[in-house]
Amino acid sequence: MTKAIFIAATGQNVGKSTVCLGLISGLKKRFNKVGFIKPVGQQHVDIKKNLKVDKDVLLFQEVFHLEAGYRDMSPVIVPPGFTRRFLDRRIDHGEMKENISRSFNLIASENDYTIVEGTGHVGVGSIIDLNNAEVASNLGLDVVLISTGGLGSSFDELVLNIQMCLNKGLNVRGVILNKVLKDKRDMVLNYFPKALAKFGIPLIGCVPYSEFLNTPTMQDFAFLFDTELLSGTSNKLRHFKDKRLVACSLEAYLDEMVPNQLIITPASRRDIILAFLKKHEEEDYRGGIILTGRHKPEADILEKIRASDVPVLYAPLYTYEAMKKITSYTAKIRREDKSKVDKAIQLVETNINFDKLCEKDYATI
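-> structure tokens emitted (365 positions)
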């Protein structure tokens, strides 16, 4: 029997990829070889001509040094315009299914256990007839559902996804709760299994919330604003304890200046920028700055910025618009951010019941 599990979630930003990092790490301690495949991907990068690869595939390949080829780990990519071409019948649905099955069978045959990562909630992909429930059913896999930690609202979202799995005849092997707040964890561990009992589904993981994992780096903000750092590229993976919008006087700014803080201020504020750079020349404040506004900093200010090693970027938006994007942004784990990868693996792996996850697989050994 093929040993594999399909990992789905109840929505975006639940932390599915984070959980998969810990799952693969834990499974590698229990099985000799563990494979990975993301059958349907959306966010992708171009590896070479005519080869688009899901970003998660790159992350897992680099972290775990997987042996499968990129094309097999990422058999179907849905770039912009893809759904319209599918609805215009310019894309062969049968060929997509065959590619997924062929890639999965190859990877599963070469590994002792395989993690299959879905995309978004269980219904994502329905418009191209390849939602997560459909793909899991085609591959004959049990499903593990990941939801955010909590009770009422978390369970309500979970039930929608459970029902879609059940309607497709899938077995939901277990639920993993992610980002569970410390002061609610004992309550969740007590009551969530009682709520799941009506479906006969076990709770197999309760992963605590980590402020560090949810803190964006300067590189994340560069991706957010689709720009490049003006300086400090060697510190592009710097994390910040807090963020501060500076629209006050220079004196008020200096009075409340603290280390490891991200400053957001208009590019026209010469006084703030110069004071920020001077402080970082004198002391290791480990800060960063995002400059906003319709116009870039003046030439002499740009020269001083580029001469520093402090991470600075310019976002060509009004400060209010930039702050809206910053405060609503959810950080993703990037393969180059080793500190976050290591933290995610440690946090998830120590909070998953692998015996319960794999008891069905152990029974077939």
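The domain at 218-327 is CATH 3.40.1390.20 (Udp-n-acetylmuramoylalanyl-d-glutamate--2,6- Diaminopimelate Ligase; Chain: A, domain 1).
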